[in-house]
Structures are given as C-alpha cells and as structure tokens.
Amino acid sequence: MNNSEKIVLIGTAPNEYLINAFNALTKKGYKVIPIVKKDRIDVIKPVIACSRVFRSDISWWHFSLLRLIRSLHPDLIALVIGDQFHHENVTFALKLWKRLGLLGEAKIYASLSTDPANLEYWGGDIPINGYRYYRTLNNSRWKNLALPYLSDDPVNTWKNNRIETHVTVTSPDGVYRSWTLHIDSDGARRTSPEKKSENLKQTVVLLGGDFTFGAGLADEETFAWILESEFPSVSFRNYATVGYDLLQIERALKRVLENSSPEMAIIEVSKQVVGVSAQSGDIFRRIISNFTESQIKPVVAPIDNYSRSWVETILGNDPDNISISDPIDTGNQISPCSHRKAANTLADYVSGHFDVHRIEVNDLSNSFEKREPATPACGQAQKQISFHLINYVWGSDFIRLYLDVTLPNHTAAGKLSSFAQESNSIYKVYTTRKDAEVIKAHPAFKHIELLMPTEIVTMDHLFSEGWEKRNNSLLIMTQMHRVAINSANLADARLVILPPDQIYSDGVFEKIIEHAKRGKRAVMINGIRVVKETFVPALNKTIKVYGNTILQPPKLLKLAFENLHPITQSEFFDAHPFSSGPVNLYKSVEDEGFVTHNLHMHVLMVHPKCHVPLKEGNFDTTWLAASCPDFSDYHVVNDSDEMVAVEISDANKRVGMNGGGPIDKKRLARFYKKNGTHIHWELLQIPVLLHTCKLNDKWDVTQKFTKSFVRSTLPISRRVASYFKAHRRY
Asked: Max alpha carbon distance in the chain (Å)?
C-alpha cells in the first residue's frame, strides 16, 4: 500500500471515529473519501466536505452502497471499527461482493479507532498466518507468548503493527523476566530511547526475520539498538519481522525504497530462508540488484555457519558477507548474548564504511533473572492439559475491584492451585504499564506467582491519543482478546476467561478441569449482574479472612438476588420498560429463584477446534461459533447448584435499558436473529435454573412456559431443526 492509493472509508462507527480516521489518514498523504448513510450526512458534511452518501442499511442485497463504491473506483476499502459489535453484516457484504468480482481489485481493510492512522487487512483468505511461525521457535518458554505486533497483509502475508508493550514473566521456580517492545507506525522496531532527527543521520536499513527483529528480546537487547548506541550519527531502521522469507524481504525492500534513501542495508539470511532452490537464488540476485540500482551498499549477514557458504556460492564476493554466527551455537539462538556478538561483528564494518567513530557501550545484562523460589514448583507429575487464565483490566475503578474483590476470589474460589497441580497453566493479565505496577505489588498476585507461571502484558499503544475521551473501551477489550486467542492458538491451550468484574462460587476451577478432561471444548455460564455499590459491602461481610472464604453456590446466589442490577431487572418477562438488548431473559419462580434463557452466555472455558483469529466482537460473539462450531462440544451450566458466576457493575450502568413498553415477541425475535449464530440459538433454548432451595413442580411448569416462548421467537429454520432434533427416533 502506498500513499497514492484512493481509500474509500465506510462510516458504520460513531461519527467521531470516522472523522478521526479521515484526519489521520489524510495527514499521512492518502486520498480519502468517506461514505456514510443518508441520515448521517448532515453531521459529517460540514466537517468533511468530500463525503458521499448511500441509502438503506448495509447488507448484500442492498445495492446503494455497492453502486457508490463501484462509481468511485477505489484502490482500497476501509471499514471504520468503532466498537465491537454489528460489523459482520458489513464485512459479509464486502467479502461477498469481492468474491463475485464486483469490487474490482480493491482490497478490504479496517481502521481501528484505537489507532486510526494504521489500516489492518480485513479481507481474509491470507494463505499463511504469521503467528503460526512461533511454533518453530526453539525456545519453548515463548510458546505461550504471542504479542500483538503482527497482522495480516495482502502483499507480504503479515507485517509489523505499531505497538508499545511491556512484558513481565514469572514462574514458581524463580525465573523472572521483564522486557519492552516498541514498533512505530512504519513497522520499524525502536532502536533508541527517543526518536532523533533523521535529517542529521546516515541511515542503515535492517531486513530479515526473527533474529534481526529480536523475537523474545527487549528493544535495548537487539543488535540494532546496540549499534545505534555505539554510532549516534547513524540511524538504524529495523524493519525485520518474524518469519520472513526472501520474497517478503524483496517486497519489504521495495516499500522502504519508496519512502527513504538509506546508505546501507543489512540483510539477515539463513539456510532455512535461502533454501537450496534456483528460485531462491534468483530472488536474492534481484534483491541485490535493487540495492545496486539504488546506490546502496548491501551487507549479507548469515546467522549460522551452514548458510554462509551457500550464500557465497550464489553471490561470490559481492556483496560483502559477514558471518554473525557463534561456533558454539547450534542453529539460530536468539538471546541477548547472540545479539551482542552480532553487534560486535557488524560494528567494525559500519565504522569503516561511514568513517565514524565507535563509542563503546557496556554489555547489557541478560534480562533473565533468577529469584529464590518461595515454595517448590507445584505439580511435578506429568501434565497433559494446558490452560491460559486470561484477565484484562485497566483504569482505577476496575483495578480496585480486581485487586480487592476479583483476585482474592480467584485464589479462593475453586482453589486456583488445582490448575497448577493438574495442568500446564499460565495466569495472564493484559493491562497498562501503570496499572501493571500496582497489580505486581499486590499480595494476592504475589500469591499466584508462587502457584504457577504468570505473564503481565501491557498494551499502552491502545491507550494513546486521548483514548479516555473516545469511549472505545469495548474495542480495547476486543484487541486484548485477540492477543489472548492468538497466544492460546499457538500453544493449543484452553482459554479460561476471567473478567475483572466477575466472581465465582467455590469449586468452579476444579469443575472446569473436569469438563476439559471429559473432552468438552467450551463451558458456558450465565453471569447474573448485580449492583457494585451494595453487593461488594455485602460480600465483604461474608469474607472474613483472605483466601479462606468458601462461597457455596446458594450463598453467593442469595447475595446476588438481594442486589440485582437494573439491567438484569429490565430483562424479566414482566419488566416495563423491557430491555432493548435482552441477551438474557428471566422468569421468576415466586420467591425461590429464576429460570433464565440466554442468547449470550459467558465463555468460562474454550478450547478452539478451529484456530481462527478474532476480528471483531467478544469471546462470546461470532468468533465462538467459528472456533467451536459443534454444539456437542459445549457444556452449559444449567443449574446453579453446579456453579455460579456474578457480574459486578456500577449502579449507573444502563446498557440495553432504553427500551419502551412491555416485552414484544416480534421485536425480541428480530433481536435474536440479528445478534445470534447457530450456537447462540442452541444456548437460548436451554433453561438455566438459578435457585437457592430445592426444585419442585413449580419449576417444571415455568420451564415448560419459557421454553415454548423462546422457541417461538427463533428463526423458522431453527425452529424446524429443533423440532426434528427433539423428535428424532433411534
């Protein structure tokens, strides 16, 4: 993608996100034409004069949008993503039109409101997923850690994203590691503490794969950073990324030369990358030819002894071949030590070529540290099942709730130690760097560090440029979910999703392990929403000593019944006004409890059968149906005696409470059809019993009524399928 391309920007997100995306992309030099629905043009037109209008809703059978796109002949179509829901109809229409050849050569991208200046490829059908490359890394320590710096790219298969992250890893055996990763908007990894004026420097471009990039290393541990420190008058631009082959290097070089004029390029090659085919040799000659035509001095830097002789066979003595291998190493060992050796090997050559003085920099200490373990590592027996326990939390209010209520509940409810004893588990937190310091210092988190390995991953790039004012917390959460899913897919691990505002009854974690051992791929549970301001004090009266409280399901459910949130109250059959977003439907059984049907249930545990990425939405939206399409793989908690989940929300939260009038079956049916998949419609038909006393005939009568009512709201095709399923004879 280059700055001369025409971008059609489809505005389905709030107006401010569309305006932000337009301004950010225009500032980068792109020709951008926003197109919006007719009822929004009066707001957008005074701000963006070039806006165009289409009529009707976006779907594959409404052709107003299609006609407008075709008339503009775009090189690229970008969808503005401003929240986490209701984009599937747009992406489905665009992808269908693309497959039918109705959009020409235009590629489909997305502009995320967390970073509107960068476009992410949204078209799918990429033949290789860059995250899979991590399976080949020798160091198994990083198999569980997939950082969010790769995204699909239609030209190079994948590319680097802008990112600012900090990672802290611990384990019960005393290993501690803390490191940073920064990538700018051009896809180059940071090579100095501050970005300096490029006009005063000569430039060296680095291209290659995971070694040059420094996979698993901190910014300051890479040889690019070390060389920048030793040659302040030379700018080193590290455009390497994980898993490059020669064709990708050639394409990356073309992009670099379109936007800059470096004096030198260092290319990382290896036996695995170069291969042994004549085609590889031809590609490599083209790369060198491009350097020569651009008056750039190329340096081929083999990273092991095996590749050097082969590269010399192709290229002879031109360009220069510099081996940065260590005779002691076997293969590509990515470590601070190997990068220091690479910097030492290249430093003399750089000094001679640019005639600049080298400033000696002391060796950086290895950022792996060894602590004395407070307790022996748990679970020495062979462990077959892997779990990633996922937490995502930021902001002072949620941090306090997480530390004071949720985190102690994790160590008490269901004995978190059972994960350490019976599985390969990692407790992971996605947050901001500021909040990470508070979390690491908390006694409850230190207790978890003694039980199992932990990872704290900060994602500060999502919180830049006034994110607090954008009200895009749902999209930020989705971005964190995407990283967690990629990491779990890499390790073939089961995800245990632990929201910061949700607590559980005793024994829940042990039951998750039981269901996983039985082969279930998903455990679904209703999370009953309560008022934080009254529920937390009531809970604190019950909790006497940290870690010793046993919240049996009836006890926790009784507290929830006494502090129901207004959102929950608006989802009852007799509510007036009834909710406008009723993902849950409640029916009282006198004063004994509720029968509830749930379109979306909390995904307590999921083990994807299909390793698909999360594009939009939450864990429980369209991704769930795509990753686990077979409903027989699901376990639905349909009786509160098994386990209870309680969701704690501020009293002033009002999502879905702008409805009008009593419950309306037709409106409810439209909501279910729009917001459901085949998995959600299966979930919806299962009555979930929330009770604090023994069940009796009244519960049977209520279940019969709610099941009949819910079934009548489903799409006709689903009703027919349910009928035959219920009356199947063997």
From this structure: 91
Poorest-pLDDT segment among 2-6, 37-41, 278-282, 625-629: 278-282
pLDDT per position as a tens digit, 193-207: 876 655 667 889 998
The answer to whether the CB of 103 falls within 8 A of the CB of 77 is yes
**83-111: per-residue pLDDT in tens?**
655 677 788 888 889 889 999 889 899 88
Report the distance separating Cα 439 and Cα 407, nearest Å: 10
- pTM beyond cutoff 0.85: yes
Q: What is the domain partition of the chain in residue ranges?
A: 6-121, 148-182+374-499, 184-364, 501-721
Three-state SS letters, 392-459: ECCCHHHHHHHHHHHHHHHHHCCCCHHHHHHCEEEEEEEECHHHHHHHHHCHHHHHHHHHCCEEEEEE
Fold of the 184-364 domain: Rossmann fold (3.40.50)
Query: Dihedrals φ, ψ of 125, to 5°?
Result: 60, 25
Residue 579, token pair as written in the block: 């909710």
Q: Is CATH 3.40.50.720 the classification given to domain 6-121?
A: yes
The residue with greater pLDDT, 4 or 223, is: 223
- 626, 521, 430, 556: CA torsion to nearest 10: 120
User: Are 6-121 and 184-364 in the same CATH fold?
Assistant: yes
Judge whether 610 and 629 are in contact, CB under 8 Å. yes
Q: Tell me what pLDDT residue 501 has.
A: 94
Distance CA 656, CA 583 (A): 9
